[in-house]
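Reviewer 2 asked us to include a model.

Predict the structure of this chain.
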Amino acid sequence: MNQGQIPEIEHPGIVDHLEGGQAFVRIQSQAACGSCHAKSYCGMAEVSDKVVEVRLDSDNQVSPGQFVTVTLKRSLGFRALFLGYLLPFLILLVSLFVLMALTGNEGLSALIALALMVPYYGILYLNREKIRRVFSFRIKE
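Predicted model (structure tokens):
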């Protein structure tokens, strides 16, 4: 890696199909996932194949069945981890302690804290187009 170059997360894949200026790439889980210490936290180890949407530039000339390498900026990987796991955990934990202090009822506090996840993930769902633009995969040349 050259200095000044942004580190990227890379996954090999196969172009599944093309649709409207986008390639849908099937990322195959690598054999290394089985021995990785972080496999229980990584979504790549849970399912053997995942299909990701890659916006094609005029530079990208791909066809279905072609082997490609899909990349994502490493900083975006950490941001996804934060939005998907860390922030909801913090919301759950903080709300649980605050509600416990206010109500003194463990069961009610736990139910309300869990119920707070619904609006959180609802907000993520409503902003999915914006998130999709930020978390854009690229095909490595």
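The radius of gyration is 19 Å. Helices lie at 74-103, 106-115, 117-126, 128-134. We have added this to the supplementary material.
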